[in-house]
Amino acid sequence: MKELTCIVCPRGCRLTIDDDLKVTGNSCPRGAEYAVNEMTNPKRMITSFMRVKNRENCVVSVKTSTSIPKRMIFQVMEEINKVGVNAPTNIGDIAIKNVLGTGADIVITKNVK
Prior knowledge:
5-stranded mixed β-sheet
């Protein structure tokens, strides 16, 4: 039996999930789906920054386009740290396509002129 706080909506329902993946405490079906996913294949979004190669002491903020498996966070961060981008950058530009085969792109979230 495990207790979780749902983060899908602002309600923050207190969820309980048993070994058979039966969820209680959810106010909506999304809470039950969240709890099952959290127990079977937890995923997270990454927000970070990358260096801008053609600017001195400059970084640009980035994020994943979709959630990635939690177990791959450190591997994805290594890829982000290896790669740099050249200015100019625009919000929505893809810095890394399908990072490590996760299906998520690393997307730039800041304009750098």
